């Protein structure tokens, strides 16, 4: 039973919330039901992928110790925690991309660790020793020029998104139905998720969590990003772009 004053307060609050849409916005944008795997699909146990190059191969841009810890401790932890979060659920049999596409329907542990699992595998493949960094393919370069004016302007805008991401997160180059876009996500979110501001096919991503650069660059995220360009695997980014065009 409530006092007259608290009843009035509750009525006023309820009407304010419904006027502002607060009471419904959280449910209307969120998927309520978990996606289901096809019947008979086997549960997936995630394991740490090997790097396509030695841990020290990205020096001097990224030092060996950072790579060892980032790969064998951080990435491993996301994978272990994803396995734990999906254990004994039907959704353990879903492809990771399907889980991410319905991220809002899952508990935070699945969103965070599913993102961490996918993002780091994508990140390792997005890099290569500087001698094989290469350049965007002619088709990707055309698309970058069309969307951003020039390759240099693209790099400036991408670096601005990465340095501007408050706290921990990622910056992305994404293929959307409208063309190429730059976006950033907090924590371990990514553009495959239904919660992302900009959804699309990720072509390139950079990890701007402090664990990605702190040992060598300390607080200087912009310096890390400047060096990071030297190890971008443009062959892989171009392949992703051309694959997305073929869809
Ligand atoms: Mn990381």
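^ structure tokens above, recovered residues below v
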């Amino acid at each position: 039973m409530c006092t007259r004053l608290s009843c009035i307060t509750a009525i006023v609050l309820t009407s304010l919330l419904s006027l502002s849409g607060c009471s419904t916005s959280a449910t209307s944008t969120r998927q309520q039901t978990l996606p289901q795997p096809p019947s008979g699909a086997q549960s997936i146990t995630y394991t740490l992928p090997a790097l396509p190059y030695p841990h020290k191969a990205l020096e001097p841009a990224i030092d060996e110790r950072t790579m060892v810890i980032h790969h064998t401790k951080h990435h491993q932890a996301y994978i272990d925690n994803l396995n734990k979060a999906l254990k004994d659920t039907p959704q353990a049999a879903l492809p990771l991309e399907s889980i991410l596409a319905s991220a809002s329907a899952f508990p935070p542990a699945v969103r965070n660790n599913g993102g961490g699992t996918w993002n780091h595998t994508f990140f390792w493949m997005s890099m290569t020793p500087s001698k094989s960094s290469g350049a965007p393919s002619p088709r990707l370069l055309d698309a970058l020029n069309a969307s951003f004016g020039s390759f240099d302007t693209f790099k400036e805008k991408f670096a601005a998104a990465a340095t501007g991401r408050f706290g921990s997160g990622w910056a992305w180059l994404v293929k959307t139905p409208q063309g190429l876009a730059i976006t950033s996500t907090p924590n371990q979110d990514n553009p495959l998720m239904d919660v992302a501001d900009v959804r699309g096919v990720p072509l390139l991503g950079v990890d701007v969590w402090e664990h990605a650069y702190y040992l060598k660059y300390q607080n200087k995220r912009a310096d890390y990003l400047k060096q990071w360009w030297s190890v971008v695997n443009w062959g892989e980014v171009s392949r992703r772009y051309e694959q997305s065009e073929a869809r």
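The chain has one domain: 8-14+58-247.
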